[in-house]
Automatic annotation (TrEMBL):
<comment type="similarity">
    <text>Belongs to the KhpA RNA-binding protein family.</text>
</comment>
<dbReference type="GO" id="GO:0005737">
    <property type="term" value="C:cytoplasm"/>
</dbReference>
<keyword id="KW-0694">RNA-binding</keyword>
<protein>
    <recommendedName>
        <fullName>RNA-binding protein KhpA</fullName>
    </recommendedName>
</protein>
<dbReference type="GO" id="GO:0003723">
    <property type="term" value="F:RNA binding"/>
</dbReference>
<comment type="function">
    <text>A probable RNA chaperone. Forms a complex with KhpB which binds to cellular RNA and controls its expression. Plays a role in peptidoglycan (PG) homeostasis and cell length regulation.</text>
</comment>
<dbReference type="GO" id="GO:0008360">
    <property type="term" value="P:regulation of cell shape"/>
</dbReference>
<keyword id="KW-0133">Cell shape</keyword>
<dbReference type="InterPro" id="IPR020627">
    <property type="entry name" value="KhpA"/>
</dbReference>
<dbReference type="GO" id="GO:0071555">
    <property type="term" value="P:cell wall organization"/>
</dbReference>
<dbReference type="InterPro" id="IPR015946">
    <property type="entry name" value="KH_dom-like_a/b"/>
</dbReference>
<dbReference type="GO" id="GO:0009252">
    <property type="term" value="P:peptidoglycan biosynthetic process"/>
</dbReference>
<dbReference type="Pfam" id="PF13083">
    <property type="entry name" value="KH_KhpA-B"/>
</dbReference>
<keyword id="KW-0963">Cytoplasm</keyword>
<keyword id="KW-0961">Cell wall biogenesis/degradation</keyword>
<keyword id="KW-0143">Chaperone</keyword>
<comment type="subunit">
    <text>Forms a complex with KhpB.</text>
</comment>
Length: 77
């Protein structure tokens, strides 16, 4: 569920939604989501002083906590 949540939020923010990919790496108690976006859209996902990235991580954390897990979002170039 977290993967779809991140994809939906990020695709709403960027200019090239077709180039948004989220890779999910499952751990025992945590999940790592690796976010790939177009080079031009990296700034839009991170935002000024990282505010948008922090907001996405907060939403992701709340969703994962509901399931009793921990989720980490990594924004890759």
């Amino acid at each position: 569920m977290e993967k779809e949540l991140v994809e939906f939020v990020v695709k709403s923010l960027v200019d090239n939604p077709d180039e948004v990919f989220v890779n999910k790496v499952e751990g025992e108690k945590s999940t790592i989501l690796e976010l790939h976006v177009a080079q031009d859209d990296v700034g839009k996902v991170i935002g000024k002083q990282g505010r948008i990235a922090k907001a996405i991580r907060t939403i992701l954390s709340a969703s994962a906590t509901k399931d009793g897990k921990r989720a980490v979002l990594e924004i890759l170039d």
